[in-house]
Amino acid sequence: xxxxxxxxxxxxxxxxxxxxxxxxxxxxxxxxxxxxxxxxxxxxxxxxxxxxxxxxxxxxxxxxxxxxxxxxxxxxxxxxxxxxxxxxxxxxxxxxxxxxxxxxxxxxxxxxxxxxxxxxxxxxxxxxxxxxxxxxxxxxxxxxxxxxxxxxxxxxxxxxxxxxxxxxxxxxxxxxxxxxxxxxxxxxxxxxxxxxxxxxxxxxxxxxxxxxxxxxxxxxxxxxxxxxxxxxxxxxxxxxxxxxxxxxxxxxxxxxxxxxxxxxxxxxxxxxxxxxxxxxxxxxxxxxxxxxxxxxxxxxxxxxxxx
Amino acid sequence: xxxxxxxxxxxxxxxxxxxxxxxxxxxxxxxxxxxxxxxxxxxxxxxxxxxxxxxxxxxxxxxxxxxxxxxxxxxxxxxxxxxxxxxxxxxxxxxxxxxxxxxxxxxxxxxxxxxxxxxxxxxxxxxxxxxxxxxxxxxxxxxxxxxxxxxxxxxxxxxxxxxxxxxxxxxxxxxxxxxxxxxxxxxxxxxxxxxxxxxxxxxxxxxxxxxxxxxxxxxxxxxxxxxxxxxxxxxxxxxxxxxxxxxxxxxxxxxxxxxxxxxxxx
Lengths: 307, 266
Hints:
By secondary structure, chain A is mainly α. Chain A has 13 helices and no strands. Chain A has helices spanning 19-47, 66-73, 75-108, 111-122, 129-140, 147-154, 168-192, 196-204, 209-220, 222-237, 241-247, 254-263, 268-303.
């Protein structure tokens, strides 16, 4: 089928340049760009976390773990790290709950409803996080003029009953909105790939609809769910705009702390140590989930007797 | 289609509708306030006026920021296309040694938190004494748009009918001619959608521009966030509405190019 099946000549033809060389030449610009402007700068930044910054401000040797020690030993920093993990966890859980019916509507709904849902899910994805979080500032405002409080007041629930602005909950609510599309889309893709006959078979064999859902649809959508959970968790833990705009001092997260270390304290080693923790959370979430899924898949294979 | 039926189906529709209300609420509130006659952006909006739109359109700073974002997004998308198309093609079609590692590097901007990418680049450019904000922003925005191009091109190439390419080659067409006449027409719509999405990723970006912008070179999201802490009248809602409308246009564009579900791999 390939060139080797054709009669070979000693003269290389004009149209068949050495393939490896061409391939490398096509890859090199993109690869070089990323190595120069992403990988190298990141390595330099993260290396700052183990360097010292004397009063003069010049960062350099000797190596020291003091930034990490300060990060671990300070209750205030630990509190920020815990807030970050908690917000990321709650955001990914609530996002998946909200995403399921939307993904089901996209994958299985009536054509018109499916199209409307798809459009409205994608729309926020192409509107800046700044604008969306501003919208949540207006909706969740603590005074009587916040949309939610105004609405509840009109419905007779007293004056300004909801006080979530500048708490962790405000960050969770706005973050769910920000990252919802990134959960719905992989989930809908997973659901759409499920063979309809599987469900039909279950129903024909007498399973009620909920049981077919729990035993067939739900397990088969796990890959999309896992992809969504991973990405939402990592992105929430690394976010800056949303906690900065609706979190206040009670909802301080690692991204905001990092920005304060760099722009207010000019403490680059400390900033770099926080950055390293954030990178660790992002990579850890990805690796941890892969490990979990791998183990479960292996266990299922063993149970089913396949090897 | 339409596999949702019975009580469970109804429940799904009700919950999905609630989800749609949640998605739309903050956007609708912003648009509603942009027409308010009140002097502060609080709910409920009072009266109806388009005067904020006239004010915002006449505002030089806003126009400058909007233009900066459009030019930046366009330049970043073009550069990402030029870098990403050949790279994705080479990865998909030729056996390159260490292809897995190369792919990991090409998609690494997805894995690294963008806030960190921006800070690392800021520090790196300071080290190189590169003080031109336009150049720095451009490089930063190529970093965040490139992986989208690589992913879209790869996905489009996987859908190409390979037998057509083989037929053309058997009939004596050169590899370049095969690409131009057979491959390119098949992948063009998908890549156009990918470019549009990458454009919006750059246009909406906050965490990269946050570190690299200056008072003279300020993309729209940064300008908006700055204004939000200084200005409390509905003009902020009006500027925000302009970005929402841009988003709506992008969604329509994606739908027209390849259909939303294909554009989003659903």
